[in-house]
Amino acid sequence: MLASSLLATYCTELHDDQAHKVDKYLQCFQLSDETLMDVSIRFRREMDKGLCRDTNPTAAVKMLPTFVRSTPDGTEQGEFLSLDLGGATFRVLLVKVMGNDEQKVEMENQIYAIPEHIMRGSGSEVGSIHYTQLICTVHNKAVGACHLPVLYMYEFTITQIDKIVLLSWTKGFRLSGVEGKDVVSLLRESIKKRGDFDIDIVAVINDTVGAMMTCGYDDHNCEIGLIVGTGTNACYMEQMRNLELLDGDEGRMCVNTEWGAFGDDGALEDLRTDIDREIDAGSLNPGKQLFEKMISGMYMGELVRLILVRMAKEQLLFQGKTTAELLTTGSFSTNYIYAIENDKLEGLASTEKVLRDLGLDLSLEDCIVTQRVCQIVSTRAAHLCAATLAAVLRQIRDNKAAEKLRTTIGVDGSVYKNHPEFSRRLHKMVRRLVPDCDVRFLQSQYGSGKGAAMVTAVAYRLATQHAERQRILNTLRLSRAQLLDVKERVRKEMVRGLSKQTHEQASVKMLPTYVRSTPDGTEHGDFLALDLGGSSFRVLLVQVRSGKRHKVDMHQKIYSIPQEIMQGTGEELFNHIVHCISDFLEYMGMKGASLPLGFTFSFPCHQNRLDQGILLKWTKGFKATGCEGEDVVMLLKDAVRRKQDFDLNFVAMVNDTVGTMISCGYEDPKCEVGLIVGTGTNVCYMEDMKNIELVEGDDGHMCVNMEWGAFGDSGELDDFCTQFDHMVDASSNYPGKQRYEKMISGMYLGEIVRNVLIDFTAKGLLFRGKLSERLKTRGIFETKFLSQIERDHLAMRQVRSILQHLGLTSSTCDDSVLVKEVCTVVARRAAQLCGAGLAAVVEKIRENRNLNHLSVTVGVDGTLYKMHPHFSSVVQETLQDLAPQCQVTFHKSEDGSGKGAALITAVACRIQNGGQKQEH
Ligand code: ADP
Fold first, then answer.
1. pLDDT at 533 over 70
2. Quick one: pLDDT at residue 466?
3. 113-117, 307-311, 599-603, 864-868: which has the minimum mean pLDDT?
4. Is the same domain home to 269 and 308?
5. Is 461 an active-site residue?
6. 450 located within any domain
7. For 481, which of 177, 311, 694, 852 is 20 to 30 Å away at the CA?
8. Whose CA is closest to atom 21 on ligand 1?
9. Is residue 553 domain-resident?
10. What is the CA radius of gyration of the chain?
11. Residue of minimum CA distance from atom 20 in ligand 1
12. Which is catalytic among the residues 538, 739, 754, 800?
């Protein structure tokens, strides 16, 4: 009892003493936190170099694309075959992946030795022997994955996920006729030649990807694979836009860093010790894989051996003696280190045994020193590994623009798994170097074989899901023939709406506006304008100045219209409007002035005069009772009278499309079409009086308010409508009405997208089949999201934050890509439909005038048209395609509904006051 405690005390003291001695001797092996941080920064630079197209050819760290674009989501299923070729064994693994809830994987495994003569024989020989064995094992399984993990990937060029060109054999393989060829094709050829079974080779991966994919099945956050075994390497999911070697910048792809080659261009020279140089000089590939040689299991034992030899030679160990065994390369196996670094006393016993087996005569001090050497060498390995891993973590964190990254690393390799302290030291240092990352390390079970099967399983899942999604999205894609059809049908409805006989049944009402003339620049005066048509109400004072440099000054105030007023009684609505006008006049100090007034009222109205408008029906969310069928000007006048506060002088009632056209026409006389794509959509244009049968007279032109949003209400769009359009229509304020508008405008596009997303989720094609409560809410997916998402060049950051806002917190990168595709398809269809309608309009104007070629300007307004990054270009593209004889310029209107209303009022006043005669 006494003796052993004495020994323990003695040991501790001796230990500290000896350890101190070794620490001093091996100072250059011990890296401070600052140095490790510096290594991490250097490695990040090397990663950038490897990712960049220009610097990649000379980069030491190759950052190879793996063509693995997605990690498992747990819904994979099926049976897969995995071949694992490397070293002296060949492994065939049958992996059964049970789908959804079970998330279970079953495996059958068979290992075959590869005889020496085959390893050095011809390619076809290795083929034949393996495939014979393969058949016995798998009984004609149809699906397979080929996995070649041990061959160093930097010697391969991969061009696709199922193609891999072998640059040169390593690990003792010398088969002729294989180098420079695609290994997968060779395998396929061999199988074909035999002709008695069939496997479909889906993927070729390396072991880091295997580790990541294996762990990814159990933990969906897993996006890094790490190997510390015979060699060392890591892979991670990189943003496509950073991978300059490949085209395309959406989504992610796994990058195999090949970090073992870090330092091959001299980046680690100041940290490499004489021993590192000695190891390298004696290796099979001098000057190559320098980082790996400081870390991995293949070299760790040898590093320790060389240090021991050197210390012995300097009389610091073994009384200055060495043995032939100790001097033999490879005699100190890395496995010894695992035993030596075991718990103190047990470790000491192991040390003694190892050293004695090497023929050494030794003391307790020698054992303590040897143990310390092992600790220092393996700690350096763990810390260097932590430094490079920290760089990868920071890269992922920056890609996601996340303040705190939560991620999982799938790890495999004998050093990580068998060394008693390596993993703990690695984890600790990673957390010290990147304290803002919450990292989970997950050990990969069954390693690469299961991983290869997972890659295949994911590829199969993606292919099946992709086909299903495209089938659904295709219903939202319109062909050129369909668009031509839309154009023709719009054209037909226009004629029906203009004709007295068919006007009643026509879905497109083609309402006369009594606006016959556009401004000529001589208008002047102060005008009041009201603008009601969306979610807000505006009052404006517009000052029009005539003369050479005619110009318009405006002052305005915006008032909101609460939902309950929009859907209350008409009296409440108009009282609210009058209240706002009163407030504005007060604000401008103009109470008492009775200015001419233009009222932009953007709902379908029947007009018999310029200063009258009978509301046909509410649109865009308005439902106020007692207004439909009434003259809106009268309703407003009644409200003014009720308030008895001020007086108004009504001159013109205007639709916003007309205002838009007129305000553009003030600058561009060729502007004869007005288009709105905002909350709703509508068009007006200058029609020949002779075609407007509802109004007397055949001379000159009049602006016609098409109210084209109602196109389709008689079934003209039924064959283009999808289930999503029907759902949006059914849950709208006026089912069956405004069908064209419901496929085009801002009020509905977000809803269409939301319905597609719900359908995809219900079918398990999105968000792993899990819907958030928020996404079930009508209107929650705003149309402005479509603009933000399509404008997103920041690697889906916008998409992710929008999805988070919608409660979809665990959405993946694949989900973001898909959401973006849905937005693109829905917005594109809207813009194409709008372009097809416009083609009908400009063609009609051209034909009215018997022109071969028409040059015309369209004045446009509406937030969707103006803010969406692609909407306007698709409209123009479609229009050009469907109406090639018309040259159409688009002019974005600045405040058509305010300025335009005032200008129409000004023109009317000019005419009333005996100015220039109205055009006929
Ligand atoms: P209104 O048509 O009501 O007069 P706007 O032209 O401003 O008004 O259109 C508003 C509509 O535009 C909203 O219903 C919304 O759906 C849509 N919207 C708002 N912001 C954007 C955006 N950034 N991109 C696309 N659409 C948008």
1. yes
2. 87
3. 113-117
4. yes
5. no
6. yes
7. 852
8. 784
9. no
10. 38
11. 784
12. 538
pLDDT tens figures, 442-482 = 998 766 667 777 777 887 788 788 899 999 999 999 999 99
Give yes or no for residue 787 CB within 6 A of ligand 1.
yes
Task: Give the DSSP letter string of 74-130.
Answer: S---EEEEEEEEETTEEEEEEEEEE-TTT-EEEEEEEEEE--HHHHTSBHHHHHHHH
What pLDDT is stored for residue 1 in this prediction?
A: 40
Residue of 427, 430, 424 lying closest to 394 (CA atoms): 430
Instruction: For residues 664 and 659, give the distance between their C-alpha atoms in angstroms, rounded to a whole number.
Output: 9
Facing residues of 407 across strands? 439
DSSP 918: P
Residue 881 CA to ligand 1 centre (angstroms):
27
Do 407 and 428 belong to one domain? yes
Query: How many separate domains does the chain show?
Result: 2
Q: Is the CB of 746 under 6 A from ligand 1?
A: yes
Residues 45 and 108 in one domain: no
Q: Is 656 a catalytic residue?
A: yes
CA of 830 to the centre of ligand 1 (A): 14
Q: pLDDT: is 309 or 535 the higher one?
A: 309
Ligand 1 midpoint to CA 678 (Å): 5
Instruction: For residue 330, give the CATH number of its domain.
Output: 3.40.367.20
Residues 50 and 141 in one domain: no
- Cα of 864 vs centre of ligand 1, distance in Å, is 5
Q: What is the position in ligand 1's atom list of the atom closest to the CA of 680?
A: 2
Does the C-beta of 19 come closer than 6 Å to ligand 1?
Answer: no
Q: Which of 553, 174, 231, 155 shows the shortest CA–CA distance to 413?
A: 231
Task: Write down the catalytic residue from 70, 82, 602, 893.
Answer: 602
For the Cβ of 783 lying below 6 angstroms from any atom of ligand 1, the answer is yes
The answer to whether position 594 is within a domain reads no
Could you tell which of 536, 679, 754, 791 is best to mutate to test the pocket of ligand 1, judged by most ligand atoms within 8 Å of the CB? 679
Question: Is the beta carbon of 566 within 6 A of some atom in ligand 1?
Answer: no
CB 873 within 8 A of CB 883: no
Question: Do the domain assignments include residue 663?
Answer: no
Give the pair of three-digit tokens for residue 468.
């299903």
Does 54 qualify as catalytic in the annotation?
no
- What is the CA(679)–ligand 1 centre distance, in A? 5
Task: Quickly state the pLDDT bin for 696 (edges 50, 70, 90).
Answer: very high
| Domain around 268 | 18-58+263-443
* Least confident residue range of 187-191, 421-425, 735-739: 187-191
The helix or strand, by DSSP H or E, that contains position 911, with its residue range, turns out to be helix 901-912
Q: What is the pLDDT of residues 224-262, one digit of tens each?
A: 999 998 889 999 999 988 988 887 777 889 999 999 999
Q: Select from 400, 432, 467 the last residue of a domain.
A: 467
What size, in residues, is the chain?
920
Residue 429 sits in the same domain as residue 385: yes
We report the CATH number of the domain holding residue 113 as 3.30.420.40
Torsion of CA 884, 886, 889, 895, to 10 degrees: -120
Contact 716, 432 (CB under 8 A): no
The verdict on 277 and 419 lying in the same domain is yes
**Strand, coil or helix: 710:** helix
Helix (H) or strand (E) holding 470, with range, is helix 447-474
Q: Which is more confidently placed, 550 or 494? A: 494
pTM of the model: 0.72
**Residue 854 parent element (H or E):** strand 854-861
pLDDT in tens, 1-33: 434 444 555 566 666 777 787 888 899 999 999
Q: In what order do the strands lie in the sheet with 200-205?
A: 104-113, 89-98, 78-86, 143-147, 200-205
452 and 432 belong to one structural domain: no
Q: DSSP letters of 13-47?
A: HHHHHHHHHHHHHTGGG---HHHHHHHHHHHHHHH
| Cα 3 versus chain centre, distance | 69
Whether residue 337 is found in the same domain as residue 412: yes
Residues 372, 381: Cα–Cα separation, whole Å: 14
Pocket test for ligand 1, best of 798, 826, 863, 892 (most atoms within 8 A of CB): 863
